[in-house]
């Protein structure tokens, strides 16, 4: 009997996550579309079902709520007996758009460069609490759900984890050479050291010392969250040699997160994560993909102009 693959997507109710669910289902994969909000998740799943995709089921999951993880694990055990693909897509940006019109007129995220950080305070704001929450969701909650699902992934013949990262996680955006080196020195980096780096960042964020200590100055917490997610991807790939674990930047996509300012559609944006999830067994692990191409973790030139 053919072994049908089963994938779980976090934040599957909208944006790139929903499109990843659709494309995986079109590829014959059974999909567990998860959403923190039950009615939004059911609505998204119904939409896919109406379009003819009956291999998508909904299950509630707020990656920040540990209580929502155990029922999900039980559900997968009962209905699928294993998990083949985990797509960690759910994330938050950690900033507030104060002037959406001006943000859009200025070219969206393209204008958010550190050299202009002082000119942007009337367009976007990064309150400390949102930055802290951004790191909690994009890094710590992603780690928690990943670790909870590892035993089910280990029951798959070809397990895959895809961490949806961002070009903003590129170490190009960091101005502290020692830190850049540490986050790339995978032989010596540990999860404990990543925790310390996050604590250092939060302290500098709180005390307005980001510039002094070489942190990114715009969308700072988001950039740090994705940079540590990339480092974690590499550490996990070394730890679990039988699981193919990669991270993928989907492109600059027109979604709610970007206030619809992206260059590409959700359909185009989902292509990279889906391609990496369906790579053959001899594909890379611990790699970073910019859309569908392997790319460096630290670029020499601005990876996003
Ligand atoms: N759009 C881009 O240009 C772009 C570029 C680079 C990387 N990315 C990455 O691509 C991924 C998807 O982004 P997007 O543009 O599709 O964003 P989006 O439209 O803002 O969607 C984010 C999704 O994450 C969910 N989410 C947030 N916190 C959650 C939590 N605690 N538990 C469960 N779900 C949660 C949201 O749920 P609710 O609907 O309940 O809020 C929503 O489904 C993210 O990892 C993002 O960082 C996007």
Number of beta strands:
10
Strand order of the largest sheet: 3-2-1-4-7-8-9-10
Fraction of residues in β-strands? 5-15%
Helix and strand pattern: EHEHEHEEHEHEHHHEHEE
Average the pLDDT over all residues and give the rounded result.
95
Give the biggest sheet: 8 strands, mixed
Q: Outline of this structure?
A:
By secondary structure, the protein is of the alpha/beta class. Helices cover 41% and strands 13% of the residues.
Describe the protein.
This is Short-chain dehydrogenase/reductase. It comes from Ambrosia artemisiifolia (Common ragweed). InterPro entries: CBR1-like (IPR045313), NAD(P)-bd_dom_sf (IPR036291), SDR_fam (IPR002347). It is a single chain. The protein has 305 residues and is an alpha/beta fold. It has a single domain (6-295), classed as Rossmann fold, CATH 3.40.50.720. 41% of the residues lie in helices and 13% in strands. The chain has nine helices and ten strands. The protein has helices at residues 15-26, 38-50, 69-79, 100-105, 128-153, 177-184, 191-206, 220-239, 266-277, and strands at 6-9, 30-35, 56-60, 85-88, 96-97, 124-125, 160-164, 244-249, 288-290, 293-295. The strands form two sheets. It has an eight-stranded mixed sheet, sandwiched between helices. A two-stranded antiparallel ribbon has the order 5-6. A hairpin with a 2-residue loop joins strand 9 (288-290) and strand 10. Helix 3 packs parallel to helix 5 and helix 5 runs parallel beside helix 8 (220-239). The mean pLDDT is 95. The site of NADP nicotinamide-adenine-dinucleotide phosphate has 30 residues, from helix 1 and helix 5.
